[in-house]
Amino acid sequence: MGVRCALFGHPVAHSRSPRIYQTFAEQTGQAFDFELVDCTAESFPTALAAFAATPGARGANITLPLKLDAYGQCSARSARAEAAGAVNLVRFEGHNSILGDNTDGAGLVRDLRDNLGVPIAGQRVLVIGAGGAARGILGPIADCGPAALIVANRDSAKAELLAARFAAQGIRAAPLARPGAAFDLVINATSASLDNKVPEVAPSALSPDTVAYDLAYSDDGQTAFTRWADALGSASVHDGWGMLVEQAAESFEAWFGLRPETAQARDRPQQ
Ligand code: NDP
Predict the structure, then answer these.
(1) Which CATH number do you get for residue 216?
(2) Are 109 and 157 in contact (CB under 8 A)?
(3) What are the backbone dihedrals phi and psi of residue 191, each rounded to the nearest 5 degrees, phi first?
(4) Atom number, ligand 1, closest to the C-alpha of residue 134
(5) Are residue 135 and residue 234 in the same domain, yes or no?
(6) Distance 177 CA to ligand 1 centre (A)
(7) Maximum Cα–Cα distance for the chain, whole Å?
(8) Are residues 75 and 51 in the same domain?
(9) 154 in ligand 1 pocket by Cβ < 6 Å?
C-alpha cells in the first residue's frame, strides 16, 4: 500500500508543489504519490474526508480559497493554526483524526530571513491582503519584532477584523489608499497576481529602500506585483517561490519526520 498525499484548492493545475515534493522524495528516498484535487468550498469537506479514508493517505496541503474551510474540518489544530484561524496542512492520524497546522508564516519568514537575508526585526512592514495566506503570515511576522506591522485590504472591513484578531501583537489596519509612510518591506498577500493585476495600494508605500515580496510565484520569478514594484524603483523584488518550497519542507517533515534540504528545490525550473 503506497503512501499518498494531496493538494486541495481551486485552481490547483498551476501548482508547482508536485515538482517540489518530487525533489524532496528523490533526496530522502521517500516514495509517495502526490495528487492535485481541484474542488470548491462546497465539495471540499466530502473530498477531504474521502481522501483521508483512502488506504495509505498520510496528509494534504490546502491552498486558496479553502484554508478557512480546512480549519473547520480538523479534529485538532496546532497553536499557530489556532492563531491564524486558517489551515494549510493536515496530517491524518487514525480513524477520523485530522490534525491541522499552518506553515505559511514559517515558510515566508524562513525565505525572507534565511534565504534572502531580508531583515524583519525593527522594520516597517505592510501586508496587503486579508485572506487565508495573510492570516497565516501576520502572527509569525509579528513574532520577528517589526517596528510596525500594518495590514491593508481591498475589502477594508476584513483587514480591520484581522487587525482586531492580532491586536495583542500590535498589528494595525489601514486603508489601501493611505497605508502610511513608505515601508521597508511590502508583502503582497493578495491573489491579484493570479489575474495579472496589482492591488490598488498607494505607490507612496514603496520607496527606493523598499523590499517588495509577492506570495504569488511564477517560473521566471516575475509577477504583476514584482514588475510594478520594480518599475517604482524598489530596492529588490521577490516572488513567493522560496516560500512555497520552505512551507513544503515543513509539510514534508510533518508527514515523514524528515527535514529535506531546500536549496535544490529552490532552483528555478528550466524554462
Ligand atoms: P484568498 O482567496 O483567501 O484571499 C485573496 C485575497 O486577495 C483577499 O484579501 C482579496 O481581497 C485579495 N484580492 C484578490 N484580488 C484582488 C485584486 N484584484 N486587488 C486587490 N486585492 C485582491 O487567497 P489566499 O490568501 O489563500 O492566497 C493569496 C495569494 O497568496 C495567492 O496568490 C496564493 O497563490 C499565494 N500564496 C502563496 C504561498 C506560497 O507558498 N508562495 C502560500 C500561500 C498563498 P478581498 O478580501 O477584498 O476580496
Answers:
(1) 3.40.50.720
(2) no
(3) -95, 15
(4) 25
(5) yes
(6) 18
(7) 57
(8) yes
(9) yes
67 is catalytic: yes
- 215 plus 151 within the same structural domain: yes
Ligand 1 pocket test, pick from 190, 200, 251 with the greatest ligand atom count within 8 Å of Cβ, gives: 190
**Catalytic pick among 67, 80, 91, 238:** 67
**Segment 71-127, tens digit of pLDDT:** 999 999 999 999 999 999 999 998 789 999 999 999 999 999 999 999 999 999 999
What's 15's domain CATH number? 3.40.50.10860
DSSP state of 111: I
Give me the residues paired with residue 236 across strands.
211
124-128, strands of its sheet edge to edge: 171-173, 148-152, 124-128, 185-188, 211-214, 236-238
pTM of the full structure: 0.96
Task: Give the Å distance between the CA of 129 and the centre of ligand 1.
Answer: 6
Q: Give the type of residue at 163.
A: A
pLDDT in tens, 208-252: 999 999 999 999 999 999 999 999 999 999 999 999 999 999 999
Domain that holds residue 77: 4-102+244-256
How many folded domains does the chain comprise?
2
Cell of 228: 510594478
Please tell me the residue having the least CA distance from ligand 1 atom 46: 155
Give distance in angstroms: CA of 123 to centre of ligand 1.
Answer: 23
Kindly state whether residues 115 and 97 are assigned to the same domain: no
Say if 16 falls within a structural domain: yes
Compute, in angstroms, the gap from residue 190 CA to the centroid of ligand 1. Answer: 3
Helix residue ranges, H only, the chain: 17-28, 44-52, 67-73, 79-84, 104-109, 132-143, 156-165, 224-231, 241-256, 263-266
